[in-house]
Amino acid sequence: MVTTSTSPTHLEDELVDEFLWLEDIHGERPMEWVQEQNRRTETLLDGPELVSMTDRVLDMLDSPSRIPAVTKHGPYYYNFWRDAQHPRGLWRRTTWESWLSDSPEWDVLVDVDELARTENVDWVFSGARLLRPQYTDGQWQRALVRLSPDGGDAVRTREFDLESREFLPGGFDVPTAKSSVSWVDADTVFVATDTGPGSMTESSYPRQVRRVSRGQEIAEAPVIFEVPVDHAQAAVYKDHTPGFERVIAMDLVDFFTVRTHVWSEEQWVELDLDPTVSVDLHKQWLLMRPRHTLELNGTEYPAGCLLAADAHAFMSGNRSVESVFTPDAHSSLEGWSWTRDHLILNTLHDVSSALYSTVPGEWELTPLPGIPPLHSASAWAVDDEDPEVGNDYFFSVTGYLTPSSLGRGSLPEVSGPEGTADSTERPASEPAILKRAPSFFDAQGLDVTQHFATSADGTRVPYFQVGPRNLELDGLNPTLLSGYGGFEVSRTPGYSGATGITWLTPEDQRGRTGVYVVANIRGGGEYGPSWHTAALKENRHRAYEDFAAVAEDLHRRSVCTARKLACAGGSNGGLLVGNMLTTYPELFGAISCGVPLLDMRRYTKLSAGASWIAEYGDPEQPEQWEYIRTFSPYHLLSPVMCYPPALIWTATSDDRVGPVQARKMAAKMLDQGHQNVSFHEATDGGHAGASDNRQAAALHARSHEFMWQMLENPKGR
Questions:
Q1: Which of 502, 372, 396 is nearest to 441 (CA)?
Q2: Taking every annotated instance into account, which residue ranges of this chain make up the domain Peptidase S9A N-terminal (predicted)?
Q3: What is the mean pLDDT of residues 441-454?
Q4: How far is 599 from 629, CA to CA, in rounded Å?
Q5: I need a surface site. Which of 137, 474, 523, 524 has the fewest CB within 10 A?
């Protein structure tokens, strides 16, 4: 064992890792350790409260009153549905008229439970990609169905016949792997998958794309595009838009850098644009959203704006662009969707939604109405190629106390030559709400408020607080603080029946109730790419300072004290709360840390970790390890520190982050004498930690029951 640092932070740059043996994911000894820890945790948490909590969450997840969200392909509306009778789920479709009724008649395409029984594989449905009808005499006949054997990212892709409701004998069948498969035509697909040595990147994703003809072995098909092994991934797809057919290849250099190529005159032509700019090719338009200030034709455009150009002209060297959206200090662009004659923008203003439509070529923004404050809303095209409903859009709205609703509206037709407008656009009408999800908890007497904390560098950090309208500010309110702070992911208001049931209005024998808080810290996308890049790599500490500032603000306002404050996060959010555990232990009374990154020394060597170097840095570079080590919870652990009780949970089948970082963190804490750490590992469920509603309910209830127990009976402080 090498000598460790004696600095006050107790950082260890270990050449020997005592717990490397836990990285053998399916090894006998590691799995015996996992089972022992599972028993220990289940003994701690098992009881009538946990059973009741799990059952109530499961009833909510299985409720037939949920909105069956749909996507339109041709005359049918497709949905994937799980309930008590179909825990693995049904892939099904119906007509619009039937969907509008209280009891739609569903045409079941794939019964995943029945398929699992027949094939003796615990399949988890991972989506389907339909073949366009222009390749099958105008009919929607085929699909590529993705199925995971354990809920992980590795899937098997199989060709499915929509008419016979069967997988096509002798059809396309790509074995289980991290892969992407997409249609070229009825007899050809693009396949990016594991075909043996040299075919995958260091990030565990495909680096080669092959064009596979029907009946051809994948490994024998020609490689049409490939990327270096140290890049993240290669992808190729065909744009099937009638009149604008083209093949596009993407070299995903890292999580935020993509080199886009278009097949032209028998060769790949790379789009001559900063590869950190997000691009969207749609019909004749090229949309660009820069992550940093972008200079074109001597004009600087800010990060997070949206620019439009004629795609053909741009690729021919013309750099003329038009500004579609320009953010300010309070607003950001979350996404967009094309109808036949319009572009719909989904934006945020201080983390509340604002929606707009605009006519391509004119680019004047028209607000879409009907969004309450402190709510999230999104709008997207129903089917921009349908001649009858090409300008229709779906509309959803949700809030922390507002169950989701789904509506549909229609934007006016714009006459004139293709791709032009004649200024005849009329104001958008408020869409009709068609379905509303039920309330799963009693929100009477509860309120949602927005507050701002001041971080260590003076930045104002917004956060939402959900709790009793007349909350007594005595510091005694059990409070759950949630956050993420990474990959430009925004935490926006949204209804969670599970959180309402288990935290805001629990109904067990102890009559518990709590306050729920969501922090919109840097590293996320709430204020656009600059909010994200402010917490990258050597500036990662800003995300953690922001989260700690929100915790301190809750203390300052006497919402809670440290002993009454829990925090929870998963994945990158698991790294977040792992840093709360090791760097800010005095602020919290309990921590739930799920499917987490924790060992930042080895994260690039585990599962898909290498693909996140652009977010965290490369620990193999000594100068970068110097700052990464300051937010590596596994290396920040100290036997002399006093940590709040922690539940660390994961899944054996998680092939994105992997279970080993969670295992090693818990094992090291126990080895150091921290007996108030609990560990639990599900066998399947992948990075989500659950493959069906029962598993999801159990996971949610276990995490919340742990935090309730620790806040009610503080120990180990």
A1: 502
A2: 9-405
A3: 96
A4: 9
A5: 137
Tokens of 475: 């510091």
Segment 656-682, tens digit of pLDDT: 999 999 999 999 999 999 999 999 999
Non-local (6+) Cβ contacts of 134 within 8 A are: 240, 242
Q: What CATH code is assigned to 20-58+440-445+541-712?
A: 3.40.50.1820
CA-closest candidate to residue 68, choices 57, 82, 52, 55: 82
| Active site members | 571, 687
CA–CA separation, 385 and 364 (whole Å): 23
**The token pair that represents 247 in the structure block:** 């093949």
Q: Which two tokens stand for residue 185?
A: 């035509």
The span from the CA of 325 to the CA of 332, in Å, is 9
Strands of 208-321, DSSP E: 208-213, 223-226, 233-239, 246-254, 257-264, 267-270, 278-282, 285-289, 294-296, 299-301, 306-310
Cα–Cα separations (whole angstroms), residue 252 to 235, 328, 389, 438: 8, 29, 35, 41
Q: What is the mean pLDDT of residues 553-565?
A: 98
- 120 Rama class: left (phi>0) / alpha (psi -120 to 50) / beta: left
Determine the number of helices (DSSP H) and then strands (DSSP E) in the chain: 14, 39
Cα gap 141→171, rounded to integer Å: 13
* Measured distance CA(680)–CA(577) in Å, rounded: 17
Q: Which has the closest alpha carbon to 574: 669, 702, 682, 483?
A: 483
For residue 337, the SS3 value is strand
Q: Domain extents for the chain?
A: 20-58+440-445+541-712, 328-437
Question: Smallest Cα–Cα separation from 600: which of 9, 12, 8?
Answer: 12
**Nearest alpha-carbon partner for 333 in 384, 370, 288, 293:** 288
pLDDT average, residue stretch 449-472: 97
Distance separating the N- and C-terminal Cα atoms of the chain: 30
Question: Backbone phi, then psi, for 421, in 5-degree steps?
Answer: -125, 155
Looking at per-residue confidence, does 429 or 149 come out higher?
149
Residue 38: enclosing H or E segment and its boundaries?
helix 28-45
